[in-house]
Amino acid sequence: MKKLFGAIAIVGLSLTMVACGSGSDNKDSTQTTEQKPTAVVELQSPAESAFSLKGGAVKVTLNAEASTSAEGTDLIYQWQLIERPATSTANITNTNTITTDFTADLPGNYVVSLIVNDGANNSEAARITLSATSPYPVAITDSVHSVNLGTNSVGLDGSQSVNPAGGTDSLLYQWTLMEKPTDSAGYLNNAEQSQSTLFVDLAGDYTLQLVVTHNDVSSEPKQVVVSVSEGNAPPVAKADDITIILGEEAILDASASIDPEGEPLQYRWQWPSRSATDPEDVPLPDITGTKTAVVRFTPQAVASYKLILFVFDGTRKSEEKEVTVTVKKDPNATSNAPPIGKLLATGYYPSNSIGEQEVGLRAEFNFTGYDPEGEPLQIIAATLIEKPQGSIAELVDIGSWKPMGKKIQKLDIAGSYLVRMVVSDGENQISVDASMQAKIGNVNGQPATGGVDAQSKSVLVGDALVFDASSSDPNDDPLTFHWQLTDKPDGSNATIEPVIEPQSQEYRRAKVLTDVPGSYTAQLIVEDDRGLFAKAYAQDSGLAKFTNTAPEIRSVVWARSWGRLNPGQDFYQILPCMSLLHRPVTVDADGDEVFTHEELISTPAGGEFTSNPSEADCPNTRGQVFTKPGKYTFRYSATDLIDDAPQYDFVVDVDPLTEATGVRLRSINEDNESLWYPLPYENIPPFANDFSASSKPYLEEGYISWSLTATDADYTIENLQVRHINGGLASLTPRFENLKNEQVIAKGKSVAFKTILPVVACIRNEEASEGFHFSFNIKEIPEITFVYETWRTANKSSLFYDWSECAAE
């Protein structure tokens, strides 16, 4: 009724104005100007338009709820991120909704524009400027490079790295080559410049990191992977980790994946394991689009979900990439869901059974589940509410390593034991029951799927991929093998066929007759004859291709601790009883797995290459050694299980001790056993935490005993150096004992010395590691060098109380 009266009033007003005008041409007095809608941008989060990235990237959420139209019509929204810091990858997630967001990943200004449309007119653009600051510099460089073998060098550019907010001083750059292919002599040039060069020599992955520093404040390391391939370079799978709010859909995009030759790509997404629940007992949601560039799923709980991505270019498969979806709690949520889960009654070693256990053995009751909002769970009550008559069993804690579990240490009488547990997330609680049946004999243990391995990772199209299983059952029950072909290339009609094992009559093997090129994945779970399934699946993949290039043995090189000599490079002198290892340098143009075999085909009379030399040949000696002087010939073979490489002979000439020159080096253990080392000697571990790990503090000095013998002349020690690697602290500087610069070792004499490590009294850094360097060379023979590095490292999760954090300086 109101709309009708309004229309009549407007008509009446118009008629009156025409009559009063008497035909005048004054149009301004008779028409109204159309009004545009108004765009209004409001910041929803963070709280202020200026914010810090100290804790990492920040999600910015904006809304247009205050935008209006003159006629009250529905609005159409057009969001645009019109300015962002150079090299930022920030993007608006939704361009046409009432709210939108983006992730500020670098310090600097972000400008967002909003235009609204009322169906007829656009508003003026409304803009908001957001300023991100950071106390840290940010290292920026391309994270992936893919080149063909034959490329000698790869340029690395970190010049786009940025200062912390307000920083004006120049950045310092440090490139580090963290890993390289086995036997590679690759190295970095200009490692302390913004632009560095990596020199490559072998196919494989070279992993580097870039750290930039501003006024002693360092960035987070930026990892770089350089993939070097022979022939067709493999594609590179690319997808960014994301963070979402619980309830949102996770969308991962791999469309940035590349193939160096520009071939079209096939995409594959999958969970890394097929256990019943993961992560942390959270069910894995179904994935949509597992064979497309964009994959979607909706998480059910606050957790970190990790997916595996790889791409295929029709010939080569990329390295698998782990992509993480971090799900956070909704800060605006007004409700809280209770925990979800069940109580699982299991036996304990040696009977890993479910729901039943041998009388006299231990039973455990563990809550298996999760809290949707990710709140920590705790047991607020656990009661043994039923047990056999006459039983004196009690329910007690398992220990701090299983806070969500209880145990009965000994099931004393056959029968049923019922446990009720109440679990709380701090706001809600659930009650769950589980029953354990104590039996005398015939307890069924849970089988284990074990592993699945493709006999050959690559075959030619038309040949079969064969998969073997290593499953087991604690009761030696007969197993049923449930095989599935869970992935195959686009356009494939292949199926999986179980193959019976002649001896066991079990289907421990399966084969897939390949029909198109690509990746095939076989998955297995086992079931015992009483219907109990294994806890988890196992799987493996194989690749089918149209053509194959035979592998090649390029050379055989001397191996030593944490490295090797370059092809063609030799030790100063090879003598009997000297610990020496060697390995082939193989390449495969297709990137196939290569298997090698070594055979010693000729030796001098009585000679051996052995780790158990006789006392007559090599007294008090350990290590794999040549026992006699003379010529030794090793024959190497290699295959990718499709084609074989031509055989390669490696000849070693061992000089007699009577012709020894220079100096001889050995280390001596507590049993007075010697390890004789070839020279130059080098022991440079690549990472601190990969070795010398200890759960107790080093409250005493440590040392290694060495001996250096002059063989045919007097020799002089020079350039003797010691240093603390990661800090240069005087208090943590190691030392030589009984060895000094200009010290002369007389012909035929030996000097016994020690490399002594200092006391490490407390944890000084996050790595809980301290590194130490020792080195010297021989003045008369400069190519004879000694370099020894080692680390003292502690596992922070298991430190004793007497190794505390160091006091602040």
UniProtKB/TrEMBL annotation:
<dbReference type="InterPro" id="IPR035986">
    <property type="entry name" value="PKD_dom_sf"/>
</dbReference>
<protein>
    <submittedName>
        <fullName>PKD domain-containing protein</fullName>
    </submittedName>
</protein>
<dbReference type="InterPro" id="IPR013783">
    <property type="entry name" value="Ig-like_fold"/>
</dbReference>
<keyword id="KW-0732">Signal</keyword>
<dbReference type="Pfam" id="PF22352">
    <property type="entry name" value="K319L-like_PKD"/>
</dbReference>
<dbReference type="InterPro" id="IPR029865">
    <property type="entry name" value="KIAA0319-like"/>
</dbReference>
<feature type="signal peptide">
    <location>
        <begin position="1"/>
        <end position="19"/>
    </location>
</feature>
